[in-house]
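In this notation, each integer encodes one residue's backbone shape. One such record reads:

___
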Amino acid sequence: MFQTARCTNQIVGPQYAPDIGYTASMSMPPYEEIEHTADLALRVRGRDLAELLRHAAEGMLDLSEAQPKPGETRSVHLDLHAPDDEQLLVMWLEELLYGMEMREVTYRDFEIQVLNGNRLVANMQELPLGSLAMHIKAVTFHDLRIIPTQEGLEATIVFDI
């Protein structure tokens, strides 16, 4: 049993949702920034865990205003295992943050599968990072829960800035 979420956008963000139709059946946006006292917070939605993970990555990149610069694009593969969905979400986003901070890259064209409920297999494009307006230090577990909704799943993610 696996779930797949695919995105072929050039740059991530909610502005692309009407064009690609992946949120057509959802009445709420795939992600939105919400108020938080000291850090950044993002409410993320998806029809299943794979789509929620993709929207979380897109939302985090949008919050940080990660912009690519001209250069070589390469395909990358990521395989993660975690004991539960929340830890898988944090591990996934932390892997992307690591690439942004340490290798100075950003990402697009996410294709995600969740296998056996606790394994994420992702393929994506990695591009040189041109600019980053908001540096996110870490993804936190603060009040993190993935909850079922009528339309799928929802999570609120708090980022340490």
